[in-house]
Write a structure and sequence with these properties.
Helices cover 53% and strands 9% of the residues. Helix 2 runs antiparallel to helix 3. The protein is an alpha/beta fold. It has 18 helices and ten strands.
Length: 707
Amino acid sequence: MLISTETDEQHEQAPKPGEFDAALVVVHGMGNAFTSQVLLEWAEPLLGRLDWLARDPLIGGGDDRHGVKVHESTLVGDTPLITATVTFPRRTGDQGSARLVRPAPGAEPARRRIALLEARWSESFVPMTRGQVFKWAMPFLWRAITRMLRLFLGTMVLVPWYTMRQHLKAPVSTLLLPPWLNFIVDWVRIIVGSAFYVVVTLFVVALGSVATMLLPLLSPLLLIPWFKNVAQGVIDGVVESIGDVATWKERPVRAAAMRLVVRDAITRARELVGDTGEVQVLAHSQGAAVATYTILEELMPADLRLRRLTTVGAAVVLLGRENWPGRSTPYHPVDTWMRMNSGAPEADRLAWENYWATWDPFSAGPIADRAKDAHARWRTAYFPEGATPPDGPEEHAVHNTSQPFLDHSLYYDNVPQVIEPTALHLLGDDYPRPPAAVANLEDRLSVIGKKSSALNVLAALVIAAIVPGLPAVSAFLADLARSITSFIGAGLAWVGAFFTGSAPEPDTEQGAWFLAGDGESLSTGGWVLASILLFALLVWVGQRIQRWIYRSRVWERCPYDAKIWLTLSTIPRAAYVLGAATAVWFAIFVWWTEDVPTLLIAGVVLLIVSAFVVVEPRFAPAPVVVPGPAFGPSGTTARAPRHASLTRPTIGNLIKDRDYQDERDARARLTRHPTTSWSRYWARVFYRWSDPGAPAVSPETTTSTAP
């Protein structure tokens, strides 16, 4: 017999249907999704962040009463569901700039009962055939490519162009560099960005052209046995992904089946929250298009207590609505949402937040009914000074990986910019929000970290492509390869002699395919293999370093002082960039010229370019939140006012802000009291700890990960 040792205070009863404070419905994107797959993708980081926030010492957490308790985790069956209770210190009035909560002794903590469920629509319809999908995909492919290149044009070319124009108009006292040097740097940024854009455009257009020629031929080619054996798996995977999009656009009856799944999930969430809780929807990619149409065109959000729609990587503009043959129905989701909210009481309005990654080719920027409005809202995100954006959802431009084609699928891994805001919405108003300066600074540091990771990958690619081909390195690798093959040959010879008495053929190591004919250097194949292995190693090391840098900012209770963090995070970026520059210089020396003046000029140019690349993430414009519209109490709609977030103070000013310094110092005081000379030195240098005479804080009320 099992005997529970939990006290009544420790034991939290599982909420019953109708008792939940918030229910979050997650909707997956295009492609097949296994049962509970999308639920786990979002639930695990969300609950992890909720627990971290609830136990934050800065708001009075850190004891056993606070945190997340999971009641139900049903991950199989027709209705996967996760329920939990989040317990945290109750907010008591104005907490001041540092958010420090000092609950009264014996005060009951705040509790939020949360349910998370998924709307998995991928198996709600019969898929289209390959031929039908390929016929539809050809014109759609170029629409998607055009939107993608428009977004990349903005990110690579227009941002530096608008930055230069802004610098030309700005007072000299506000510039970080002298005007003439600022002008040169801006033009270098424009030229480099334009060159990269041309390369990316040529690659994407070439890829699209090949796909356009191959798509009509794929179905007939599958009749050939050997081609079917080789390619059918890949083709079926592509059809499985884009086939969902084709079905949504071209088969209205099946599209209705997708929407029915979303409606059922929202209805189930409404039953869980009863008459006092709230329902929220978080939808990704194609799921965002399905959920947005369902909510705005087919449901009454107020009746379902639906209070928030969060779209991430949304293909709302790209996919729109289904097409009936012979009918052309305009689709204006933003106008529909505006009309819905303008006539509703404040308590019944539907908030809409849209998260789009700056390199996401499918969302391709903000949501708007008209292209000019989308561009205006995109520009406002980067250059908010004096801007009055057109009406639309609250726009969050985020950085998931800062790498093209990878940003779209990793929103759930972006804790500071996507997961934490969603977690705060689930916690409600009882949980204190960070001061604006702290939130802005953490957002900027997150962007710098993601840009650094992308730069490291590009630098690793340059290093890996060049270094194995340099004569000295190639000779070393060839000698290493001969040693390895000789060792393997000797081992095989011993095994052969032991069992059969046979002997190896002479000089077998000289015939290795990765060695050149003379055996003193790598062959072309060996060079490629060595480059692939070196690239994989450099990327792995860079990811490990960046993961440490990321965790030191996101998960530490007392993160490094921002200035120290910026310095430390620059070191690996500088190492990778300088490594790439050195590899290019040696390539010039080995394969082009040994002329000393030319080499000196090349070295100076490479150093200048390297310095520019290293500091670029630190000083490049970072997007801000573009607020949604302002609805008047009488149901009228007003133009969105300038919002506090529609300013872009420099990182230096944010670090000097009193709110940030108060929070930094409060976190340093709440960590474990350093007891040794080394820990005190570490605390002073890296955490700005400056209170060596303060008494140690009781471990029952603090949680420490710092000195």
